[in-house]
Amino acid sequence: MWEGFSGALDSLYVLLRLVSVIVALAAVLGVMNMVFTLVRQRRREIAVLRAVGFGRKSVIAYVLAQSLTVALAGYLMAVAGALAFLRGIRMQALGITVETALTVELIVGALGLTWVIGLLAGAYPAWQVSRWSVAEVLRGE
Question: 17-29 burial, b for 16+ CB within 10 Å, e for fewer?
Answer without folding.
Answer: eeeeeeeeeebbe
